[in-house]
Amino acid sequence: MRRGGTGVTGGGEHAGPAVRIRAAAGALGRGRAPALVWRLVLAAVLVCGIGLLPWLSRTDPALTVLKARSADRDPTPDVLRAIRDELGLDAGPLHLLGQWLGRLFLHGDAGRSWISGADVTPSVAQALGASLLLMAGALVVALLTAGAVCARTLRLGAARRTGGRRSGGSGTAMLAALPEFLTGSVLATVVGVQLGWLPALGWYGPQWMVLPALALGLPAGGLLGRVLDDLLPGAFAEPWALAATARGLPARRVARHALRRCVPGLLPNLGLFVVGLTGGAVAVEQIFDIPGLGRLTLQAATAQDLPVLQAGTLALVLLAAVAGAVTRGAARLLLGPALRDGALPTLHRPVPPTRRTLPVLYGVALLGVIAAGLPRDPLALDTTAKLRAPSPAHPFGTDSLGRDMLARVAHGALDTLTLALALSAAALVAGVLLGLLPRLSGPLVDTVNAVPPVLAGLLVAGVAGSGPSTPALAVAAVAWAPLAAHTSALLQQERATTHLSSTRALGAGRMYVLRHELLPAVLPPVTRHALVRLPGIALALAALGFLGLGAQPPSPEWGLLLAENQPYVERAPWTVLAPAAVLALLGALAVTAAGAFRGRRRRGAPAPGGPGDGTGPGELLPDASPADAQQADNVRELV
Questions:
Q1: How many CB atoms neighbour CB 453 within 10 A?
Q2: What pLDDT does residue 567 have?
Q3: 632 or 362, which is more confident?
Q4: 148 near 532, Cβ under 8 Å?
Q5: Which of 26-35, 476-485, 584-593, 608-617 has the lowest mean pLDDT?
Q6: Alpha-carbon distances of 38 from 423, 441, 537, rounded to whole Å
Q7: 520 and 602 in contact (C-beta within 8 Å)?
Q8: 616 CB contacts (<8 Å, ≥6 apart)?
Q9: Rounded to whole angstroms, what are the CA distances from 381 to 20, 76, 371, 395, 410?
Q10: Residue of higher predicted confidence among 258 and 158
Q11: Three-state SS for 119?
Q12: What's the rounded Cα separation, in Å, for the pair 141 and 607?
């Protein structure tokens, strides 16, 4: 009877292994084909948009190329005509783009640089190799930093002494809030120049990789560690952890399984970090004089060297696709059959409220700085008080023009913080909405992540012009991607939970499941993630200002403050430390506020490990064998 239609189509548990494998492979192939087409369409739109950049920005590409080749040469009509004839600009952008794509796909030739005349493919490959090596070193630093951040929670959780509370994470927040370009400048100046421990400039061997890897990896590790630390208490509250403790398993093994339970929800963001550390390390590559891909694409975008810019962007898009596929496959591998069979416990459990003293203290301190500086004039010049050290008259000192740093930091905070909060809220809404549609947002996240904020800023500046709105538009275009990836990863796990299967079996519709089960499980952690990323958005705005995009002097915008005072970091470190300290204070406020934020317990939600949870306290470990079933039953009786 089981060989009938009902046994195969209606009851998957009666089908043979070969039938289930073929059915799964067919469904996987049908799901991948539209995603592949969508990914190719997005990559084509991005590359074509870059190819049309000079014409979209209404600039003369011949004049831009001439300035990049020789800034002193007069742009006479004959000279510009010769450049147009040489590059074939008179044929139009569509002809140039089609010609470049034809050579690339038919012959693997990315053309020649409009500036240097060298072959593009070898230069992009060399720059990509340097960036990948730097990314690997930064990723090692980031993982070690994330492990150090989570060490206390792992130790206490394995001993079942967390009590559902999370640490304040102030030190982590300040670490994650440090600007990469500021960290790199301090490391290069102090460790590389003054102490002479490590080389500060160049790219000639492993020793030259240490300082830039630290500058990139420390902030990234602080953010990754904080997101992982937010998931761990929920894993330690699952029934399998109680069963493991009752069986007397070593704390180290319990901690290892808790990591395995939480890492799949973090892997998509780790893939985004891989691409971001490869193409987004523009400021660090400039500080340490590293010939990486981010620096190459920045120079190409500035000079409108389209063959180099298109090839570099295409390399980042391919890297993003590979990193996304690897991380998603690793997440499925770590979760194992439980993801396929809908046997996961839910990570959304009620936890005791945490202390909210720290976010209040940090908020009062930040508001105090702003209130103290607002009455002062940020544009008042005093040439007799240049680079004055902090004093009662100038608590944060003065800059190279004698302007009061407290006034400039406070007035810059209004614009920076307001804009960062608005962008964070918009990124949260867009990330959650797009994360609910993983087939649509998955390729879109990978493609958008391949465009670093700096390159996005240059593209926006090319189309809309450079101005105060340029950083906001550039950051808004990419800030939602990590939140969408996080939402999709959590939804994938929540849809495979036992309580959701029971809810559907009782006749609940899609909208009921979405409103009462999925969104309450996903919104609290994603909202905390958005709060943790608030300093990162402020840093992205500051980085664009640091590179000359956005606000222009004499604006007190934070990125511009750091850029203006960077040459005086040795003589007057307070000119850089003052805005950096306020950024770190903002990071501490965001992270502690995220730790105090909790979602409301759903009506009728079961207690952890309770009978209505769909799992018992004797639930097996994620990789337990069937032979452990009898021992798990004994644990149920003991508990």
A1: 26
A2: 78
A3: 362
A4: no
A5: 608-617
A6: 27, 10, 28
A7: yes
A8: 239, 609, 636
A9: 76, 41, 21, 16, 17
A10: 258
A11: strand
A12: 38
Query: Tokens 């011949």 correspond to what residue?
Result: 62
- What's the half-sphere exposure (Cβ side, CA atoms, 13 Å) at 296? 30
Residue positions counted in the chain = 639
Q: Which secondary-structure segment (H or E) carries 562?
A: helix 558-565
576-591 pLDDT tens trace: 888 878 877 887 787 7
451: pLDDT strictly greater than 50: yes
Q: 459 burial class (0-12, 13-18, 19+ CB within 10 angstroms)?
A: buried
Per-residue burial over 196-231, b = 16 or more CB atoms within 10 Å of its CB, e = otherwise:
eeebbeebeeeebbbbbbbbbbbbbbbbbbbbbbbb
* CA–CA distance, 449 with 225 (Å, rounded to integer): 20
Residue with structure tokens 């004049």?
A: 63
Distance CA 36, CA 30 (A): 10
Phi, psi of 552 (to 5 degrees): -120, 160
Q: Are residues 422 and 436 in contact, defined by beta-carbon separation less than 8 angstroms?
A: no
The model's pLDDT over 238-285, given as tens digits with 9 standing for 90+, comes to: 778 878 877 888 888 888 888 888 888 788 878 878 887 887 777 788
Enumerate the H helices of 304-404 as residue ranges.
Answer: 306-335, 337-341, 357-373
What does DSSP assign to residue 188? I
Higher pLDDT, 181 or 628: 181
pTM over 0.85: no
- CB-based contact 541:420 (threshold 8 Å): yes
What pLDDT, on a 0 to 100 scale, did the predictor assign at position 454? Answer: 65
Q: Please say whether the beta carbons of 320 and 449 come within 8 A.
A: yes
